[in-house]
Amino acid sequence: MERSEAAARVAEAVHDLASDVVSALKGGDHSSARSGTAGPEGDGPWLAAVRMLGPDLLLPALVHGRPPHPQDVAACRRAADTFPPRADSSPVTVWSHWALTRMSDHPDARSAAFAAPT
Description:
Layout: H1 2-25, H2 44-53, H3 59-63, H4 70-82, H5 91-105, H6 107-110
Helix pairs in contact: 1-2, 2-4, 4-5
């Protein structure tokens, strides 16, 4: 029973975070997916949701030509460190993890002067 409750909490967190990303992409009031909120400390379901969305969490800022919020970048890094792919992970999971770590390590993701490509 605990496992299904945990899965439900993760599913809810994924839904909420994905909704925030979509809202930000549509030009909603969010300056970033979570408006720079890196999630409650120790919030496993929220951090798992960050890992599941991967680098898409940073997409709204990049699309709108703004630097990703430093807390969003830090959340991506934390999620990548907390949930590395297992040895038997699918290629999709491995590539998603690679993209997440590359985005969270990229200097432009942390730069205060990010400019959209022309």
